[in-house]
Amino acid sequence: MSRLFQEIAKAAAGGWAVRVTVIRAEGSAPRGPGAGMTVTATGLDGTVGGGALEFDAIAEARKIGAAGEGAWPRAVRTYPLGPRLGQCCGGSVRLLFERYAGTDALALDDASGQDDLDGGLIVRPLDGGTPPIILRDRKQIGRDWPLSLSRAVKDMLSGARRREAALVPGGKGRPDWFVEPLAPGAIPLYLYGAGHVGRAIVAVMRGLPFRIIWVDTAAERFPDDVPEDVTRLVAAQPETVAAGAPAGAFHAVMTYSHPLDLSICHAVLARGVFGYLGLIGSATKKTRFVRRLSELGIADATIARMTCPIGIAGIAGKEPAVIAVGFVAQILQIAAARDSTCTARKNSL
Questions:
Q1: Which positions ≥6 away from 187 have C-beta within 8 Å?
Q2: Average pLDDT, stretch 191-204?
């Protein structure tokens, strides 16, 4: 299921919702392409940058939502971030407004499949009149699509191009198209342990570019109010979950048991295709784990990729909320460094 369309459908249950998305940003803009918010007659979820820009965009979205004209109405507005908006950013932002009735979003959610992590794309022309297309396979590419769009989509689906929000020119006399991932930029984060620190981490991660898979050995170990965007996974042997995680996933290990922590760390390190492995604990715990992992046959260079203690340096507090903030800051730094490396490699090709 697509979380994006689930959120839109929930917002549109009262009649309509307008999704506002940044499709182009130039100069010093507050948010980049793909950032979005969902606006209803009385509510708002998300942000396109705040300030006067967002104030104007909300008003425009409600105007479009109340009008309800035509099938799949869309509109594009360009906002210079200058004196008219009372902002001194100096850039400009182009926004796409899309009106959804409740049934529209539900139908798209059904069409999006069972999981939004498998690389699907949302594709649509800017001129409206047709529903967004949920694209998962090159066979779905339309024969009458602009060549530039077909190429962009093929490259994203094949992995030759990063799957990210993109405004694609339609060519002379034809509308431009907007493409975005069904699950934009979400790094899988496997969080092992539903104790105090695990709960504190979940509490501070709303809105961040991670998809949390929260793992523990028994259902009763989880709180009653697990957020909707967090996947709760009960596993008698969490190390089997770790061994089957997708390549590049982040792992944070903080269970109630040191032997269980060791088994999970061993599974992650033995496979070796992770983006981050963090183990909660002291320097003494790390020394013991390094020795045991080495005895289990893990190479020293691989063990060195394990982070313990977790969190950025300079924060000494041991309260769960303090540990959580330090940890989240650390994985955001690592994710940003990984993105920079990917961009550098792409530019060198």
A1: 209, 210, 211, 248, 249, 250, 275, 335
A2: 97
